[in-house]
Write a structure and sequence with these properties.
The protein is an alpha+beta fold. It folds into 4 domains: 37-183, Jelly Rolls; 202-409, Rhopdopsin 7-helix transmembrane proteins; 487-646, Heat Shock Protein 90 (2-Layer Sandwich); 670-781, 3-Layer(aba) Sandwich (Rossmann fold), CATH 3.40.50. The chain is built from 20 helices and 25 strands.
């Protein structure tokens, strides 16, 4: 794709260069004035205009009035700067004043004719047939009385006359150049007017294009603040845009005729110096390996010095040394071209487009400088198209650079997210492992018939450990939700039983606050529906826990209400209502944001991470369901949502209730437990033996493979992270030997992070540390033959 772009652009640039070459061919000679007379009786003005060049009457240090006689006539080339005119064998100075006269003989039948008068260094006054026609600035014989100004003017010639006498006053007391430097054009008024409008239009288009480009690149820089090339090119465009309307034909002066000439002239010169400095800073930062810092720094110092001179020195001085600065620029244009060629050889990013744009810029600036030195004509259309091509190529370069910056930032963000995920995963594992020991030991101690005071203490420890586990799970779950990594399962579940267990688990928390905990469900809700029990449990638990936390007295009620039932689906509204502190209307949206509670006093008083509601809302969003809230300050709250579930018509395999009342459910069941942590191994062994199972221990995966006996062991519980041989490799080896007994993974890592590896290794199921003893037993019973 990029190669095709280059081919097309190269063809466009080549065509543009050819047109440039044809356009800059020498101008055709036209009839010129001889000794102050220009005979145009045979001129056809309907097809072409004519430059009023040649020999004009010339009177140095005189401002002759119309009709004033002169004793001696002298002649000079027009247009020509005064320092190129010799009087007495010596060139004239640039400072002074003079009168030019020309008689034009016109054809007898001519169209409406007009003169197009360019800017003249540095003021002029034109009389036509003894009448004042136009004045630009104020020419005078004394500097104090004169006033400079530049603009291009169109003046109509008198009709129905065959002779036109032009008398031109020119004065310059300020600029290093004096006198006329561009020809006066005579022609058909419609043609001259149309050409003038075209030139104005092209200048306006070019200025607008460059100025809008600067705003575009400034905007890009706001999003890529460390990308200096974009900033410097934006500054280049902004400063250079004045060059188009602030130099010949001085559109800016025509729009603001009362503007101060001395101010605008300094701006004109400064715009060139500053734009060139910005351009080379842009090149330096675009290709720093190729651009010599010292070389560019020299130009910057020269530009800075010249800028100070422009701001402080007289016009005559800083305009006089401009040619020297332009010569330096010629050298730097060549150097810039060298940088782009070298970058292209070194295969830098977008150096091909940069080289193309350098070719265009080189031709543009070369031509503009040749035009400045009167070695080439003025061609607006070619200049305008050249600028647009140059800016288009730079836009490709900088847009590509901006896109690279964004992709690089995105990559860094992805690496940061990955590092965060790895950190959270590691911390989860490291926290869950000791929590498993704490929770397991508490369960063992609670089954040992402790005294009443000991039981209260153990229940506080168990509650605190479970709270810590909730905090860890909240942070990990929110991270997964933010990264769109959480997937919903579709398995059988009993919503009524889930609600019952949630209420039972929250009862001790409610009792500690002396809050009544209520649970009601619709009898039309079937025993089995299809959904994700883990996530539904998490949402309801968060809502119930929040309700208890923010209720100081009164009650909390969980309700499951069937809204719509058919043979295949049931729609259920799950609501948690409380008599707590309530939420003010202006706070009802912010509470769903992460790490946010209604106000800081709330977090100080009630604690928590502020993630519960945010997680619940995001989980429900995976179901395309909104978490709703009805609340008033001081009058309690109701959080509710409505979900549709497929109904499951098959036998309920295993109760999700407690196994406390069952007598040794794992009786005559032998389990091989592979666990390298002695404390965790002891806890798991004790819990399993309490359920009636026989347990044989293995210290690592290799030992588990060696100890396994198909005639003895009914199930294997395999820790994943073990020395010598981990659980993944051990399970693979067992499966490769034809072992078909259930192998249950035991890990502190979240299942979603290792689901692929678990399946590939051949595990039957997974238990996450810290585990609930009843949950461990139920998982094993799922795979007991005959159940």
């Amino acid at each position: 794709m990029k190669k095709a772009w280059l081919i097309v652009l190269t063809a466009i640039v080549t065509s543009w260069v050819v047109l440039f070459a044809l356009s800059t061919s020498p101008l055709k000679n036209t009839k010129t004035a001889q000794q102050g007379l220009l005979d145009l009786r045979s001129q056809d003005f309907s097809s072409a205009n004519i430059n009023l060049s040649g020999q004009w009457e010339f009177y140095w240090s005189q401002l002759l009035l119309p009709g004033e006689d002169v004793s001696h006539r002298s002649y000079a080339s027009f247009p020509s700067l005064w320092n190129k005119i010799e009087v007495g064998g010596k060139p004239l100075p640039s400072v002074g004043y003079a009168t030019y006269k020309l008689k034009i003989i016109l054809p007898s039948s001519d169209p409406l004719l007009a003169l197009r008068i360019p800017d003249i260094y540095s003021s002029y006054r034109l009389y036509i047939n003894d009448s004042l026609a136009v004045e630009n600035g104020k020419p005078a014989s004394k500097k104090e009385e004169a006033k400079p100004f530049w603009s291009e003017r169109i003046v109509l010639l008198p009709q129905h006359t065959d002779t036109v006498n032009l008398l031109l006053h020119v004065a310059n007391f300020w600029h290093s150049k004096g006198g006329p430097h561009k020809p006066v054009v005579l022609g058909n008024f419609e043609q001259i007017s149309r050409q003038n409008k075209i030139d104005w239009g092209l200048d306006t288009i070019t200025t607008g294009f460059i100025l809008m480009s600067s705003f575009l690149f400034f905007g890009l820089y706001l999003f890529a603040k460390n990308d200096k090339p974009i900033l410097y090119f934006a500054l280049f465009c902004f400063t250079y845009s004045y060059r188009i309307i602030g130099t010949g034909p001085y559109l800016f002066y025509s729009l603001f005729p009362g503007i101060n000439w001395f101010v605008t002239l300094r701006i004109e010169y400064l715009s060139l110096v500053l734009s060139c400095a910005c351009l080379f800073q842009y090149i330096r930062y675009l290709y720093p390996q190729e651009a010599g810092k010292a070389v560019v720094r020299i130009l910057l110092w020269v530009s800075a010095l010249y800028s100070i001179i422009i701001l402080t020195a007289p016009v005559h001085f800083f305009s006089g040394i401009m040619p020297l600065y332009l010569i330096i620029l010629f050298f730097y244009l060549g150097y810039a071209f060298y940088i782009f060629i070298t970058a292209y050889i070194h295969k830098r990013n977008d150096s091909d487009f940069a080289l193309l744009s350098a070719c265009i810029a080189f031709i543009l600036f070369l031509f503009l400088n040749l035009h400045y030195f009167k070695l080439a004509p003025d061609m607006k259309a070619m200049i305008c198209s050249g600028y647009i091509l140059f800016l288009f190529l730079q836009a490709i370069i900088l847009s590509s650079r901006f896109a690279y910056t964004l992709s690089h930032a995105a990559l860094q963000a992805q690496l940061g997210v990955k590092a965060k995920s790895e950190f959270l995963s590691t911390m989860s594992h490291e926290i869950r492992t000791p929590l498993n020991a704490i929770i397991g030991l508490v369960h063992i101690l609670l089954k040992g018939k402790p005294s009443s005071s000991q039981k209260d203490t153990l229940e506080v420890v168990l509650f605190s450990a479970n709270n810590l586990l909730v905090l860890v799970n909240d942070i990990l779950d929110y991270s997964k939700l933010e990264e769109n990594k959480m997937k919903l399962e579709k398995i059988d579940m009993d919503l009524r039983e889930i609600g019952k267990n949630i209420i039972k688990g929250a009862q001790s928390f409610a009792d500690s606050k002396k809050i009544k905990l209520e649970y009601e469900f619709d009898k039309d809700i079937p025993e089995q529906v299809l959904g994700d029990p883990t996530r539904i449990t998490q949402v309801i638990t968060n809502l119930v826990h929040n309700a208890i936390k923010f209720t100081d007295e009164g009650w909390v009620r969980l309700s499951l209400q069937a809204e719509k039932v058919d043979t295949q689906h049931i729609t259920i509204t799950i609501a948690v209502k409380d008599s707590g502190i309530g939420i003010l209307p202006d706070e009802q949206q912010i509470i769903f944001k992460r790490f946010t509670q209604a106000d800081s006093s709330t977090s100080r008083k009630y604690g928590g991470t502020g993630l519960g509601l945010a997680i619940s809302r995001k989980i429900l969003a995976l179901y395309n369901v909104e978490l709703q809230l009805n609340s008033e300050g001081g009058r309690g709250s109701t959080f509710w949502f409505t979900l549709s579930f497929p109904i499951v018509y098959r036998k309920k395999i295993l109760s999700t209730g407690s196994l406390t009342g069952m007598d040794k459910p794992l009786q005559d069941y032998t389990i091989l437990l592979a666990e390298d942590n002695p404390l965790n191994a002891m806890i798991a062994k004790t819990i399993l033996e309490d359920f009636g199972a026989g347990v044989e221990l293995a210290g690592n995966g290799r030992e588990a493979v060696e100890k396994f006996n198909a005639a003895v062991h009914h199930v294997i519980i395999m820790d994943l992270n073990m020395p010598e041989m981990d659980g993944f490799e051990a399970t693979k080896q067992l499966r490769s030997k034809g072992v078909t007994v259930p192998v249950i993974a035991l890990t502190a890592t979240l299942p979603a992070e290792i689901a692929g590896k678990i399946k590939a290794a051949g595990f039957t199921d997974i238990i996450v540390k810290p585990f609930d003893p009843d949950g461990l037993c139920r998982t094993i019973l799922k795979y007991r033959k005959g159940v």
